[in-house]
Structure of Flavoprotein:
Amino acid sequence: MTAQDSKPFLYVVVCAAGVAVDVGRLIAAAQERNWEVGVFATPVAMGGFFDTASVEAQTGRPIRSAWRTPGDPRPFPPPDAVIVAPATFNTINKWASGTADTLALGTLCEAYGLGVPTVVLPCVGDALAAHPAYRASLARLREMGVRFGEPYSGATQEDGGRPEFGWTKALDLL
């Protein structure tokens, strides 16, 4: 067994939100805490929401966004934990309903069945967060044992700045 194999393995699921541009901060913090990291991304997130080449260089692994074909080896070991950050309205609602129409969602649905600890950092605007389906989805995921970081709407604060997205707080919740 190599030193890399002895580290716990973290799946990071990235959704299409503007703050995804900084997902490298979560990866760096996880690596500093001795995690090996593999990244899954929703298909929309792969369309320019973060620097995929940089993330692949940082993790030393390909980003997973599409299903592998039968017979292809699994590029990641099974997860010891999962962090979904940023988690969008769409992903949260689909996941809570058991929809697995993308690799990212299928991975999240499977992680529950495997009992893998999962943390979510929602990134949902206030108008969408007010929707009753979203509130019901949060309740269902909490019932499933999913842990949540502080919601992030990206709204400008009174001082004109934006609040910090809780990248490292997600690791604390594990």
In short: The mean pLDDT is 93.
